[in-house]
Amino acid sequence: MSELNDQFKIVDYLASKGIQPAGQKAGEILYYSPLKAERSPSFFVNPTKNRFNDFSTGEKGDIFRLVSLLEKTDFKTSLRLLQNLKNVPAFSFSGT
Fold first, then answer.
1. Could you please report the per-residue DSSP string of 39-96?
2. Could you tell me which residues come within 8 angstroms of residue 96 by beta carbon, excluding any fewer than 6 positions away?
3. pTM of the complete model
4. What pLDDT digit, counting tens, does each position of 46-69 carry?
5. Which residue, 72, 40, 52, 42, is CA-closest to 10?
6. Please, which residues have CB within 8 angstroms of residue 17's CB and are 6 or more apart in sequence?
7. Rounded Cα distance, 66 and 46, in Å
8. Count of CB atoms within 10 A of residue 16's CB?
9. Tell me, what's the pLDDT at 86?
């Protein structure tokens, strides 16, 4: 799972959705929450760990969690959406 997480960067995904950074603080990139309307940026991305923390909603996690939240989908569909964005060969799930 770690390899998959490293393959898809949160900052690249956000940029593909037209979501731009609002600043930087202590090695983290700040955004306005893509999950909720707000006046000050409370969505932090740690680009080294490729993890997010949305202080306005309490949501946090990896790229797959973020895609699931924004696209309102499950893990498999989130992975396929990311693969389509990067033109990555489809990952095969056993039993599907």
1. SS--EEEETTTTEEEETTTTEEE-HHHHHHHHHT--HHHHHHHHHHHHTPPPPPPTT-
2. 76
3. 0.84
4. 999 999 999 999 999 999 999 999
5. 52
6. 34, 70
7. 13
8. 11
9. 74
* Per-position b or e across 76-95, b if 16+ CB within 10 A of its CB: eebbebbbeeeeeeeeeeee
Q: Name the band, by pLDDT with cuts 50, 70 and 90, for residue 93.
A: very low
Backbone angles phi, psi at 45, to 5 degrees: -120, 125
The token duo for 57 is 């909603």
Which two structure tokens, joined as six digits, stand for 8?
């898809």
Element (H, E) at 25: strand 23-25
d(CA 80, CA 57) in angstroms, rounded, equals: 25
